[in-house]
Amino acid sequence: ALSHMLLANLIYLRYAAWPLLLLLVPFGLVIVHLDQWYGYQPLKPEQSALVTLKLAGHGNDLSKVQLEPGDGLELMGKPLRIPHTDEVNWSVRPQQQGAAMLTFLFEGQQVQKKLIISNQGFERVSAVTPAREFWDILQHPGEPPLPPNSFAKRISVHYPIRRIDLLGWETHWLVFLMLVSMLTALVFKRLLRVQI
């Protein structure tokens, strides 16, 4: 009897596999865009954040990379340069609400990244300005990619992670989405004539 049950479950999984695989692509794209809203919180005034620029290529003179903060932004201390990873890190602190621009300079070139500062509940936040690579753009669709032949490979702002309050328990928004999806499926199971 147990072998029949296992065989029946395998047959069920075989029939469910193709619809699941077909849904993974559009569902994955939706998840990526939802993460722009629910994955991170915008910075609040006087709340500092780490900004990281990764240079394209190796062996660059990191001391030549400069950051010019826009209006209402203050640099905290000196930049941290990591030659092993070709990265430069800054700590920035906004003074007022709104969108501010970070301008990065290197050997006569410049690139920019938008910084979101808000006390509002939900704002679309793009934590990464991606490189001009298909998978990088797909994972970080919030901003246009960096220009071709740019000295920067990626720019990241370490925004605070957003947590969803679920009956007093703070959790990641994907866990909340999974729980809500499962409960919705169970509630509408009979209405949609679905048998599990």
Concise summary:
The protein is an alpha+beta fold and 196 residues long.
Task: Note down, in words, how this protein is organized.
The chain has 196 residues and is an alpha+beta fold. It is 30% helix and 29% strand. It has helices spanning 2-38, 134-139, 173-187, and strands at 49-55, 66-69, 73-75, 80-82, 87-94, 98-106, 109-117, 128-129, 152-157, 164-166, 169-171. Strands 1, 3, 4, 5, 8 and 9 form a 6-stranded antiparallel beta sheet that branches. The longest helix is centred in the first third of the chain and has 37 residues, at 2-38. The mean pLDDT is 87.
List how many beta strands DSSP finds.
Answer: 11
Beta-strand content? 25-35%
Low-confidence stretches: none
Main β sheet profile = 6 strands, antiparallel
Properties at a glance:
3 helices, 6-stranded antiparallel sheet, 196 residues, alpha+beta
